[in-house]
Design a protein that fits this description.
This protein is an alpha+beta fold. It has two domains: 120 residues, N-terminal domain of MutM-like DNA repair proteins (Alpha-Beta Barrel); 124 residues, Helicase, Ruva Protein, domain 3. It contains seven helices and ten strands. The strands form three sheets. A four-stranded antiparallel β-sheet has the order 1-6-7-5. It has a four-stranded antiparallel β-sheet with strand order 2-3-4-8. Strands 9-10 form a two-stranded antiparallel sheet. Helix 1 packs across helix 7. The longest helix has 20 residues. It is elongated, with a radius of gyration of 19 Å.
């Protein structure tokens, strides 16, 4: 699933192309992309002007001259400018300047929806992972029951982080994924905040991680997957100590860690 760095990269490549543009026509080729209401969604979007493009967590948010559009890519969604239609194209936006936004999604978990007010599912998200200083970050985790990895994946606590970047940040911070959050003192919380900030910044600079379907709005792959220290590297040596990276399941997610650098 595209996480914060991937969605931020899509935003940065998409915003200059669509900000200020009028959606001349919206078409849905799959009712799932429209939340089961393709005709209503198409009618609501057609004729609307995109005022800006924002991001909150893993959502792309488009304030319009009437209402709001939001896109969640989920597992395999892609937002592309002027790309050819494919068997996986689920929606199209044609703009007044002749360009087209293509929403492709092979697995059909993604959504492109309109609402008359700021969407509830976005308002329920926790603070964006890029927006918190060390003190605010620590306050989100301090004293919470539960293990640190599932808490970091909880979008109501902190939005934008997913499996890849939680694993990478925990490794840099030398914190085991199953460590109870209540056991993280000020030093380790500060170290974790720094690790999250560094991993996200480096991943954005690299255009995100292209492991399967992800590309930016221009169709370009990211390359941060080449810099992963633990994610997807089971059995390979830890870059810090040389111990073989292990994999386990945490919160129903494949989780990669170094048993020597990251002790419970």
């Amino acid at each position: 699933m595209p996480e914060l760095p991937e969605v931020e990269t899509v935003l940065r490549t998409l915003a200059p192309r669509v900000t200020g543009r009028v959606i001349r026509e919206a078409r849905y080729l799959s009712p799932l992309a429209a939340g089961g209401e393709p005709d209503a969604m198409a009618a609501a979007l057609s004729g609307r002007r995109i005022l800006e493009v924002r991001r909150k967590g893993k959502y792309l948010i488009f304030p319009l001259d009437t209402g709001w559009m939001r896109i969640h890519l989920r597992m395999t969604g892609r937002v592309l400018i002027d790309a050819p239609r494919t068997p996986w194209t689920r929606a199209l936006l044609e703009f007044d300047d002749g360009h087209t936004l293509v929403f492709d999604d092979p697995r059909q978990f993604g959504r492109m929806l309109w609402s008359s007010a700021p969407p509830d599912d976005v308002s329920r998200l926790g603070p964006d992972a890029l927006d918190l200083d060390a003190a605010a970050f620590a306050a989100r985790l301090r004293g919470r029951r539960g293990r640190v990895k599932p808490l970091l994946l909880n979008q109501r606590i902190l939005s934008g982080l997913g499996n890849i970047y939680v694993d990478e940040a925990l490794h840099r911070a030398r914190i085991h994924p199953l460590t109870p959050a209540a056991r993280l003192g000020p030093v380790r919380l500060a170290r974790l905040h720094q690790a999250v900030a560094e991993v996200l910044a480096e991943a954005i600079a690299a255009g995100g991680s292209s492991i399967s379907d992800y590309v930016d709005a221009e169709g370009r792959r990211g390359w941060f997957q080449l810099a992963h220290r633990v994610y997807g590297r089971e059995g390979q040596p830890c870059p810090g100590c040389g111990t073989a990276i292990r994999r386990m399941v945490v919160a129903q997610r494949g989780t990669h860690y170094c048993p020597r650098c990251q002790r419970v």
